[in-house]
Amino acid sequence: MALPFVLWIISLNLSPEYCYQFSLHWTRLDVPDSGLAALVRLSNGDMRKALNILQSTHMASQKITEEAVYLCTGNPLPKDIEQISYWLLNESFAESFKLSETKTRKGLALIDIVREVTMFVFKIKMPSDVRVQLINDLADIEYRLSFGCNDKLQLGSLIAIFTKARSALVAVRALCDKA
Fold first, then answer.
1. Which residues form the signal peptide (predicted)?
2. What is the pLDDT of residues 18-72, one digit of tens each?
């Protein structure tokens, strides 16, 4: 009886956040805003996926926090992506290979890291031509990973494209300083 009511609410084409909040209220789960934001982000607007994530996370931990949602789904935490992005943008080529250790220690897939770093690149302030080239190169890596290419080789490619982007950013900054 309750399931058709929930499906009716979903069919109203309301915002995903509203539908998720309604579902949380209906299931009487206490989810902090950060947990809800993680649920919305990882489900990509798919209510079935959101309910599956919610159920899995609730079974794995009593509190449905942002960290619990990310750990339950196996996605990299936002703080991990920030750290990885920092290494890629600021460390030398050799130093950036510590990403491999982090990937192994936390059980992350390189394709998930590439997808999350791609979203992070959109948040960083940089010239549009550098951003476009970086996004294009990240898409190429994701494409190659989806066909089963060697992770270590693609990790080197990931570090190389950020090294190239960093060089382009330094060149743009030098041009701006001259002007």
1. 1-21
2. 655 656 555 666 777 788 788 888 888 777 888 888 888 888 887 888 999 899 8
pTM to 2 decimals? 0.78
Residue 175 and residue 179: Cα distance in Å, rounded? 6
CA distance 4 to 117: 39
Domains and CATH numbers, the chain: 2-73 (1.10.8.60), 78-178 (1.20.272.10)
- Between CA 26 and CA 6 the distance in angstroms is 9
Nearest-angstrom CA–CA distance, 73 and 50: 11
Q: How far apart are CA 108 and CA 118, in angstroms?
A: 16
Do 47 and 19 meet the contact criterion of CB atoms below 8 Å apart? yes
